[in-house]
Amino acid sequence: MPLIETNVIQGGAVYGVAQMSYTVDGAAGKDYSAALAAAALKESTAIEAAAASYTEVVRVRERKVTDLGEALAYLNKALSTLRVKNAEPGDKTSEMYELATAHSLLSKYGISLNWSSYSSDAGGDKMSMTRANIMKAQNDVQYALDTEDNNLQQDLVALKGLISKRDSAFSAASRIVKKADNAASATIGNIV
To answer: What's the rounded Cα separation, in Å, for the pair 65 and 152?
Structure first.
């Protein structure tokens, strides 16, 4: 938001210095303080809009981190149902709520579980997972969770920076307006 000097204000001099008329983003005829305050206010408004959209990005990342964490917990629970003594990598789980829920959470983000199918006594195919596949899925989900959590932390730092920038721009505009008001009050006080 550039301040552009447009022309000298006729008859306007402060302490012998000719005063200029400024244009801020197409709004002409402002004195320097008003132009500076308008520019700072416009900057804080633009930053506010950027912060709002960034906040939505952070919320989406937080939701994904939560879903990945829940899916990892369900995978851990499914793995805990397998035998511990004489465990084999090929040990299979039967289709269970934990695996179905983990699959549902992960499929939203394009992460698929390596299911195996088997025939049940009741007829029809059911799905199961081997111990090795569950452990691989745990590693994949943990990696995705760590990556997403790191991205979330970076986004939170960037959002904090934007909010700080917005606050300082708004404070600058407020200080300028207050100084201009104090100067006008002092001038009026001197006249009276």
So the answer is: 8
CA angle 147, 69, 75 (to 5 degrees): 115
Report yes or no on whether pTM surpasses 0.90.
Answer: no
CA distances from 55 to 30, 66, 168 (A): 35, 17, 19
Q: Tell me which residue of 22, 16, 48, 31 sits closest to 179, measured CA to CA.
A: 31
Distance CA 42, CA 37 (A): 8
Give the model's pLDDT for residue 192: 61
User: Where exactly are the structural domains of the chain?
Assistant: 1-30, 31-191
Compute the distance between CA of residue 57 and CA of residue 60 in angstroms, rounded to an integer. 5
Which segment of 65-69, 145-149, 174-178 scores lowest on mean pLDDT? 174-178
- 33 Cβ contact list (under 8 Å, min separation 6): 176, 177, 179, 180
The conformation of residue 82, written as its DSSP 8-state character, comes to S
- Residue 183 CA to its chain's centroid (Å): 41
Check whether 31 has a pLDDT greater than 80: no
